[in-house]
Write a structure and sequence with these properties.
three-stranded parallel beta sheet, 17% strand
């Protein structure tokens, strides 16, 4: 959560894209986590609703024990099989972004245990999207970004303080 707060807190209130977040967190902490995110970054965070159209300047989190996907321009929630022992799964979200947005996808994978997100990040990169994984020098746990690095899934490996500025630079080209 601290790495996520650092990245999201570094984005301006005028950020031109919706922000979709998969955080591996216990269900009992999810509502508090969403509220807390809204206090450490310049836009509101809320649980996504199935079929909702995401809007710029908002953070969307899946409800407990649900995958978050993008189909076309709408959010989809489901209780499909866990991926990398996770539901929600970063790979599920990234894979859907590769299909829906292709070269217009911008995805970031931060510190965390295991390998969730790495395969989906590789699919985004293969679809022409832009992918960033946190560099080992700042990752508290290099499992997920390390798996992405081994797969060649990241266009860039960046230390945590460099991620928000780079995302802003890239989003300006996507959001306008």
């Amino acid at each position: 959560p601290q790495a996520l707060a650092k990245v999201l807190g570094g984005l301006p209130a005028t950020f031109p894209l919706p922000i979709l977040v998969v955080q591996h967190i216990t269900a009992s902490f999810l509502d508090g986590f969403a509220s807390w995110l809204g206090t450490v970054c310049p836009f509101p965070a809320a649980l996504a609703a199935d079929g909702e159209t995401p809007r710029p300047g908002r953070i969307y989190l899946p409800p407990a024990d649900h995958h978050l996907r993008v189909e076309g321009r709408r959010l989809r929630l489901d209780r499909g099989e866990p991926v990398c022992v996770q539901r929600p799964s970063g790979t599920v979200l990234f894979r859907s972004m590769a299909r829906s947005f292709g070269a217009g996808a911008l995805c970031v994978l931060l510190t965390g245990m295991g390998e969730d997100g790495a395969q989906g990040l590789a699919e985004v990169r293969a679809a022409g999207g832009y992918t960033i994984a946190e560099d080992e020098s700042t990752a508290v746990v290099y499992g997920m970004p390390g798996a992405a690095a081994r797969l060649g899934a990241a266009c860039e490996l960046l230390p945590l303080p460099a991620i928000a500025p780079r995302v802003i630079e890239l989003a300006e080209g996507i959001g306008h």
